[in-house]
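[job 0417] fold request received: ABC-type xylose transport system, periplasmic component
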Amino acid sequence: MKKIGMLLLVLALVMTGVWANGSKESAASGKMTVGVCMPTQSSERWINDAANMKKQLEALGYTVDVQFAEDDVQAQVSQIENLVAKQVNCLVVAAVDSSALVNALAQAKEAGIPVIAYDRLLMDTDAVSYYATFDNKGVGTKIAQYIEETKKLKTAKAEGRSYTFELFMGSPDDNNALFLYNGVMEVLQPYLDNGVLVCKSGRTSFKETCILRWSQETAQQWAENYLSAFYANEKLDIACTAFDGFAYGLRSALEGAGYTLGQDWPLVTGQDAELMATKNIITGYQTMSIYKDTRLLAQKCTSMVEAVLKGAKPEINDTTQYNNNKLVVPSYLCQPVAVDKSNYKAIIVDGGYYTEDQLKI
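[job 0417] inference complete; emitting structure tokens
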């Protein structure tokens, strides 16, 4: 009778999902762990992403293990391998260089751990289940459309106007960077072709304009070189940058070259609407940025984690764009918003992303 009772108890545990390695445990029990791998803490953006993910996942009862790789590829490989060894229930990965993660992600798949790509597509792996990101081509499109509208490029040819123009694009090991570049060039290439935009460095391809690891220092060095080599006798009118960090580097280079705010300062774009960037928009050192509400992205990713761990299907709005060379990864794309001095209060402050006090100069 004791053996029969024990068998019945085991059967009850299995049926209620409490048995085995905990993969069926309720999130409310606090025993399910989500590993969150972020690329670096050197960018405000990734700190905010990690904090939002942790807050939202913990609110659902999950334990959250956040790891920052500080843009060190091998460090991120080790972090993922360690999380797999700890038998986390799900992995969320924003890659430093996804091509280096293929073997580590294969270990996760072999261990039965679902993987969600966060804002950077995981390439060349079939271990990834879903992808949460912003519309990366849309980011580039909005940057380019802002330039087009602000400088009235559509009528410039007929009116005899032209503008000097340089590109500072994202990291070649980040798949998003190419999407963004394509969005920019889809809008602006015709103006380069007809002479409305003049790139005096001649560097307009993605290969020529991409900056490894989104390095602010490299962007500044490039800008300093361009300004001395090509713009000694003619001012730079437009710096099309793909990241707020690049815009910070541009500011330093422009100040060093003697540019003056309110006189010959160029139009400078950016992405992420970081706190410093928003302050620079207010003062005029940066013209615009792309606001990406990381709270929303974290919310969508959190819902993906929740669905995966409950055996359900998450909300998806794109099943065609993101081919990682192994599969087309089902994705949710959040929409980016262009912000400048005219609308930052309505979008950023009224939206509760930053307060007026935070933005005091």
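[job 0417] notes: Residues 1-30 have pLDDT under 50 and may be disordered. The chain has twelve helices and twelve strands.
[job 0417] exit 0
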